[in-house]
Specification:
The chain is of the alpha+beta class and 596 residues long. The protein has 3 domains: 261 residues, no CATH class; 70 residues; 129 residues, 2-Layer Sandwich (Heat Shock Protein 90), CATH 3.30.565.10. The chain is rod-shaped. The protein is built from 15 helices and 17 strands.
Length: 596
């Protein structure tokens, strides 16, 4: 059971904690990935720009200065002469040295340039920056560039090709990118050989990341050079060459730029750029692994926080499940002790959570219930004692009634006629008979009023016209059942405490009003006696609700009203000094037949 609710809480807390956390990470990750993708695209474009710009500036500067020089007749004529003949005049020597100095300056400005050639169409000789003489093509160690130049189309001004230059047998061949630039003022070509290794080293410094791959393709779809980070470089270069060849064949290479492509079972973000100045294609390929590499710290943070959240979820679920079952066991123990009648040993602790509130309230309700039961038992016990005391003090009503009848006969016999004493004796016999009857038997309101009138007749004989009483009673409530001696103690209290103590002769008027109020019957006993101050009225109410014996009449009536009808039927007393007092109460009609 514990395991079941533990995993249920884990599932609930997981939904409350992990899912919002994942949503937050997804939103943040989306913006973070967007930033990284923008950096990848901008970095690829910047690298391609630097790649194209470096070669374009080289070719442009070289071509521009040579065009300026060849446009000058004083230079172009000696140039033609020294390339066409084996002998050089003084002007040819000047032009030759000028050309060598020009080549040397470009070597210094661009260290990745391996060599430069200047060739005029139809000649067997050419100028080379790598030679202090004017070499012939057939005897020079590097002469295959001429075949490439001669294969160029007539309308093709620029062309690029990858070659090897092998000067000495004991040296390793040098991989070069050869750039061909036709001259504007003469029929010939300028050849620039770029040392691929040196150029690649230069480009590596300009790359945005070590994960980046760079490729250069000629207009004939030949790979001129590459910088790759893949382990199997040759295989990857072949796969990429085939991939790029398909796009060049359909003239759809522009779609490569700014998109993800799958090459050799790997995903790459490609940037492509075409250089019109060089007639070559530059391509940057950044693998998806670079994006993962850049996101690794973020992913580690996500995993760490998720792991921490999971640990927190398991910990909270375990603690709350364990606490819940602890409180459940405590409740079981408390009720078990209560059912066995044993003393409850549970100590109420500080309330720290809802379970503590529930348990403490349950214990409080249980103790309150026990207290109510004890109070009810005590009330029952007190009621039984009072009933026993009433029975012990009760005198046989028939004996008293018979005695009063004998006294009445003797009065008539001695006086020989009826008298007020005879009338008083008859009323007293009714009062005594009603009062001494079993108090638990039911009476209706008609019988209670007849008893009250008999009691008032006796007082009238005693006090004469000093007491005046009025009765206003709804006829339809006379059959309403009440307990005995309901009204007489209240009327007696009006006479005892309402008359003036200064011996004044002012009459006491007592008015009894009984109304039918739908689901209730209202009673009011009003007198014009001396009344009470607010302090005196407060003390009287305290006596009525106390357990002492003072003011026994009103206290007993109020106690019986509460016992039979509840709190809503309690006595309500209102009084004004020198104006009088009003005592009222209400009895419900519901379940009247069951009331005692």
């Amino acid at each position: 059971m514990l395991r079941k609710y533990f995993f249920k809480r884990v599932r609930t807390y997981f939904l409350y904690m992990i899912i919002p956390t994942l949503i937050l990470f997804i939103v943040v990750g989306y913006f973070f990935i967007s930033i990284q993708l923008r950096r990848i695209q901008e970095g690829g474009q910047a690298t391609l720009y630097n790649l194209s710009n470096s070669l374009e500036v080289t070719v442009y500067n070289l071509g521009y200065y040579l065009d300026v020089m060849t446009s000058n007749f004083s230079f172009s004529l000696p140039l033609r002469n020294m390339l066409a003949t084996n002998t050089m005049q003084q002007s040819d020597v000047v032009a030759f040295h000028m050309t060598q100095n020009f080549f040397s300056s470009f070597h210094l400005a661009y260290p990745y340039i391996h060599s430069m050639y200047l060739y005029l169409d139809g000649n067997d000789r050419f100028l080379s920056s790598a030679s202090s003489q004017i070499p012939t093509i057939e005897q020079y160690y590097d002469n295959d560039w001429l075949d490439i130049y001669q294969q160029m189309a007539d309308d093709e001004i620029r062309f690029a090709s990858q070659r090897q230059i092998h000067r000495y047998a004991f040296d390793q061949p040098v991989q070069v990118i050869t750039l061909f630039q036709r001259m504007s003022h003469m029929n010939g070509v300028i050849v620039i050989n770029i040392d691929l290794d040196k150029y690649q080293n230069l480009l590596r410094n300009a790359m945005v990341t070590e994960f980046q791959n760079l490729f250069l393709f000629s207009s004939h779809r030949d790979m001129l050079g590459s910088i790759t980070t893949e382990q199997n470089n040759a295989a990857f270069e072949r796969a990429f060459a085939l991939f790029f060849d398909d796009f060049l064949a359909t003239d759809d290479y522009a779609t490569l730029d700014g998109n993800w492509w799958r090459i050799d079972n790997h995903l790459f973000f490609l940037n492509a750029q075409y250089s019109e100045q060089l007639n070559i294609y530059n391509v940057s390929a950044i693998p998806f692994s670079y994006l993962i590499h850049e996101l690794r710290y973020y992913l580690l943070l996500v995993l760490a926080i998720l792991f921490l959240d999971i640990m927190i979820v398991f910990s909270i679920a375990y603690l709350y499940t364990r606490r819940s079952f602890f409180f459940i066991q405590e409740c079981i123990n408390v009720f078990s002790e209560a059912e066995k009648g044993e003393e409850i040993t549970y100590q109420v602790s500080d309330v720290k959570d809802e379970f503590g509130i529930i348990l403490n309230n349950m214990i409080y309700l249980h103790l309150r219930n026990n207290q109510m039961k004890m109070n009810l038992m005590e009330r029952q016990y007190q009621y039984e004692l009072s009933e026993k005391a009433a029975l012990q003090l009760q005198i046989n009503p028939h004996f008293i009634f018979n005695t009063l009848q004998i006294m009445d006969f003797e009065i008539i016999k001695n006086l020989g006629k009826l008298s007020p004493l005879h009338k008083m004796t008859m009323q007293l016999s009714k009062v005594v008979k009603y009062a001494l009857t079993d108090p638990t038997t039911k009476v209706n309101l008609r019988e209670e009023l007849e008893y009250l009138k008999a009691y008032l007749e006796i007082l009238k004989v005693r006090f004469g016209d000093f007491i005046i009483t009025y009765f206003e009673v709804d006829e339809n409530v006379l059959d309403f059942e009440v307990f005995r001696l309901l009204l007489q103690p209240i009327v007696e209290n009006c006479l005892e405490h309402g008359k003036r103590k200064d011996g004044g002769k002012e009459r006491i008027i007592i008015k009894l009003k009984i109304y039918d109020r739908e689901d209730q019957i209202s009673f009011a006993i009003i007198d014009n006696g001396v009344g009470m101050t607010q302090q005196e009225l407060t003390k009287l109410n305290q006596k009525i609700y106390s357990k002492g014996m003072d003011n026994i009449g009103l206290r007993n009536v109020n106690h019986r009203l509460l016992l039979h009808y509840g709190e809503e039927s309690a006595l309500q007393i209102h009084s004004k000094k020198n104006l009088g007092t009003a005592v009222s109460f209400r009895l419900p009609k519901t379940n009247n037949k069951n009331k005692k």
